[in-house]
Write a structure and sequence with these properties.
The chain has seven helices and no strands. The protein has 152 residues and is mostly helical. The longest helix is centred in the C-terminal third of the chain and has 26 residues. It is elongated, with a radius of gyration of 20 Å.
Length: 152
């Protein structure tokens, strides 16, 4: 099982050397590495662990073989990664980096607008206050999740 992880990491390193930085960003190889590492951390308790590893390894081998025709494979790559990320979120209760920040910032802005209209009678005063509170709460929850090791 550990051989799959080493093979996947080797393929990712080779791809970084052969493809452009733009393609590397589109493929989000950093996220791909994090997903492999997080998936490996649940190897003892996850039934689908090896299935996802083999699927990702086969996909990366195919992607590496078709480097010239990579433009059409970005969507397929994102689907494969999202499938694994979805499994990690549902079954292992992991969250993507920055999830709480974006969630609470939008909630804070909404509440800031409501309080800006009703309490302060000034939208421009309520919006930044709500957004600031949301960012503070979201950043704290993100830091807590990262400290507990619950991020992808």
């Amino acid at each position: 099982m550990e051989q799959h992880v080493n093979d996947i990491m080797t393929i990712i390193k080779r791809m970084r050397k052969t493809i452009s930085k733009e393609s590397s960003k589109k493929l989000d190889l950093n996220k791909c590495e994090r997903v492999v590492q997080r998936l490996e951390s649940f190897s003892a308790s996850c039934v689908e662990y090896e299935q996802y590893q083999v699927k990702l390894k086969d996909h990366l081998i195919q992607l590496e073989a078709n480097v010239d025709e990579m433009n059409t494979d970005f969507n397929q790559h994102k689907k494969v990664i999202q499938c694994i990320v979805s499994h990690l979120q549902k079954e292992h209760k992991l969250v993507p980096e920055g999830m709480y920040l974006t969630l609470y910032m939008s909630i804070g802005m909404s509440l800031g607008m409501v309080f800006g209209f009703t309490v302060f009678d000034n939208l421009t005063l309520g919006l930044p206050i709500g957004m600031s509170m949301g960012i503070a709460i979201g950043a704290g929850l993100d830091a807590d999740a990262k400290k507990k090791g619950n991020t992808i």
